[in-house]
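Page 42, continued from yesterday. The earlier attempt failed because a stray header line got pasted into the input along with the sequence. Redoing it now with the clean sequence only.
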Amino acid sequence: MTEDSDHVTVVFAGQSESWAKWVEEECETAGIATNLVRWDPLRKPPEGRALTDLLAAPGRVLLVLDDWYLRFDAGRYRAWADVLRQVLPAHRAQIAAISVTPHSLPEAARELDPVGLYGVGREEAKQRLLTACGLVLDQHSGVDLDRGLRFPDEPPPVSNVERRNRRFTGRRQVLDRVHRLLNDRTAPAAQTAPAPVAVHGAGGIGKTEVAREYAHRYAGEYDAIWWIRAHTPLMAREDFAALAKELRTGDGDELRGLIAAAQRRLAASRQRWLIVFDGADSPDELAGLLPRGPGHVLITTRDTSWSSHGAELVELPRFEREESIAFACRRAPRITEEDADRLADVVEDLPILIDQMAAWLEAYPLTDVARYVQDIREGDPNILDVMPSGGEAQRFQAVWSTTLNTLGEDAPQAHELLKLLAHFSADTVPVRLLRSARASDLPSHLARLVSEPSNWNSALRRLSETTSMRLEYETGPQDDILTVGTLRMHRLFHRFVRSTLSARDRKQASETACRVLVAADPRDPTSPRHWQRYADLIPHLEPSGALESADEDVRSLVLNCVEYLRMRGEYGDGWTITRKALDHWRADSGPTDRTVLVATHQYANMLRRLGRYADAEGVGRDILDRLSADPDVQDIELLRAMNGLGGTLTALGRYDEARSLYEDATARAVRRLGDSTVPRTLAIRSNLAQAIALQGRYAESLDQHRAILEARVGLLGPRNALTLLSALYTAWTLRLLGRYREALVIQERNTWLHGQVLDREHSQTLQAQHNLALCRRREGDLEYAHAMMRRVRDKVTGRRGGHHPETLLISTDYAMLLREMGRFDEALEIAESTARLYATQLGEDHPYAIGSRANRGVVLRDLGYHSSALAIGEETTEGMARVLGEDHPWSIGCALNATAARAATGDPQGAVDLGRAALGRARVGVGLGHALTVGLEVGLALDLRAAGRTEEAAKLAEETLGRLVASLGRTHRTVRAVAAGERPYWDFEPQPI
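This time it went through. Structure tokens are written below.
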């Protein structure tokens, strides 16, 4: 190392902070002391003293040359170039420079003879840097070339941030404050959510650009940077779910599970990450997405209520005048600083309008700047041949009216294209879809434009240059040329363009946009390979006018998008889109139009999935009444309505009504379709069989399921998914009947076939695995049952979330399995959670809520809380009988638990009275050999003995044990437990519906 190389002052512009920090660490590692100096020329006069003050420091001055130095040949920056020329000769040995830009530097910067670091690779860049700092290197220098911060020219391993805006200017104080706040508020542990920072301000103030600049400027500090378009909750959820794939975590169909998987991975990560929520104006709907862990969350928004969710607010003001001037000169190099000052003054330093005006002036180089500024200052959009919007300030209207008017005169094709683009979502204009649209779907002038790539790209560039829309390029389909891939339009400008259109133009653009979307519809929303396409289409449904369209194809597109949302578990958004569509479709076509009926069916389905069962029932009954009164109704529509309402009644716990409706639907289907074994009739019959099982009539349900299984084997084959589902239901019902060995034999093969046909992670396969775990449990193999059920529960919870009906169903069973294994505290925690969630979602009097409370009572009795267990036992026995009748197996099961609670509190006679009455109903309802009957017999024998009636007790115990041995064998766990005097219990198992 030379004598002068022990200290380096690193001078950099703010946008190159990541490079400066990397330089600092590499120099410090090599033994060179460093001092970082941020250089902000906008706030300093161009004087030689400013540079000589820096040169007074010991050692060398290292200038980090970036895109800022490209401006040395324009405006006030030329004065800085002159200063550098004056100072450089006398201090040449003391000044070194590195270049971190891919662009050619102007002459004044080239005189520094900078060492290029951009694009040369990490190791070579380190060697060049240390040499420029005066370090004499040899192969044995011992410098560690592998440690430290990530090389700034290497993007984070996980990142989806768009390219950096080279024209970004200023905002130093805001960026510094955001950086300081994020680092001060980093979460200390995975269980803690990092305190987000929300950059807020009015539309057009530049929030998105500040966030993008932050992501690039500090990219070296993060291992993952993920940009989430949060303009709508659905878009935000789609983008967050996409992060799961990049992090190689999560599986399944529903966005909820993928989001949860990504959140867990972020929380457990030891690496630093940055998540940006851009345009997040719905805090209450988006707060649940905020991740936990050792990372940062940055939000851009117009809504300051993010503070109630723990966010630190940072207000983004308008440009300072120096920033306005610098930005305008950078956007349009031909204008002088005096012109830029006048331009900034007329729009009061609002960034979006400065950008728009400078873009227009750059596109029309012969325009007199002073005259243009004066026209804007005095202009009235009413005299500019463009209809005023009435909603924007006059300055907006004047600037944008001038732009549209000129565009219409000089580039009519681009102007027509803009009218069409305004009928797609501003945030994700579907350039790819337009480029691949059929010629017949476009007006002739646009069809010609799209067919020629060079003309197409030229038109989009013209729009970008004159309207400041942002373009991103990608490789074309033939990998031979670059073409425009994405386009962003500011929402204010998007709204303004739409407001200026005549009714005729709006109608034509809407119809064209809808045709483009229809042509892009894969027409198969159930296939995962098409899901990304549907995610891309949904943001355009409303702006295109698709939700208002009477066209059959357009409505089919909307319905396919809704079905996609159902498949992904996004029921709230599916409900919203369906409701908006129905508001228009019913008015246009009447309530019994085919597309209206399908949409209504989906609407009720979404309500049901959201837990709004009463609303779903109202919708279902209304449409069924209308169809029943229509003499010309199509049978398929009536059957769909009956089936849908039956599902709602089943979910409401009204099993008798559901059965009656399914029986009517089955009879109608057989009459109309001529056969009880056609696929649609079999589907209705399967629902009927489930309703019968929910009535507690397991033997009758088993007969139905076996008949359906036989029909599906003959019709669809043994390996069809529906056939496998029928076999699963058959095994499930056998288990409910207490025929555990038969159930296990069928379910073991059924589970294996599910894995072969559908794969081991399919939702139906997980249901099969769950039933196999229950069969194994009833056969006494608790360890196997626990391992399998825990895996299924973890998988379903990860996919669906903890509140989903499938998760609650499995968790209810899992709690009682843990209880049987003696893990009472864990069992109680899960049992209490499921009981609470069922009551919240379905109501306190729903059979599932009552049954899950009964489970809680069983565990409390095991833990010695006998009084509480008795209170729950009595309440659930009365509640279940009130809802389902006292002869229902679930009512009898609650009574069994209540007898045990009475006995535990020292009331054997009360236990005898309740147990004897329940036993009589069980023998009639489920038969002598059923587990429920046996449990009541064993309990009654114990209670009779406690009441002093030993002879009767002994006789009953002997008879019961004999039947158990004959049924299960002497070595079965249940037989051994009864012989040892253990008290039986009943645990509620919610059924799949």
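Notes: Residues 710 and 723 are 9 Å apart (CA to CA).
Reminder to self: strip header lines before submitting.
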